[in-house]
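Troubleshooting: if your tokenizer reports a length mismatch, compare your output against this known-good record of 160 residues.
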Amino acid sequence: LGWIRGWKITSVEYSICEYQKIIKDIRECLDETKCREGLRRLRLWENRCLCSIEHLKAICELEKIAQFTNDAEPKSLSDDEKESVKQHCANALSYCKRYGQIHIENMPDRGCEGTIVSYCATIPVYIEHILQYFTVGEETCSHRPISLDAPPPPDTTFFN
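Known-good structure output:
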């Protein structure tokens, strides 16, 4: 769970509340905004705040796993703990799916397509790896999607 262990659940919950307040403010602004461009931007901000909330909820689910697991000893979990990992991972994946559904509702340019592709190729895969690592003992991430657009290797001719 590496980087998840660095999150403080109280900070994540606080952030969710702050995003909810921002959404409320944005919705009030939407009621008073007449400019088409202003409405478009406000709707995008609202959408991305909603996405952020879903992502943070997924982090909360993973943080719950971090409370009773040890990355160095994944096979030490009891059957009940493995079931708990399965449930929290399922919840986290559900939040990730909702993130994607919300995100694609407002994609004004191709950069947004890149964001959702990147998200879907990282966070759900990470969660799936956590699930496999703690429930069946997977050590390498065998379910990672194949990258067809890998960057070229660095040019090292200068060093030769």
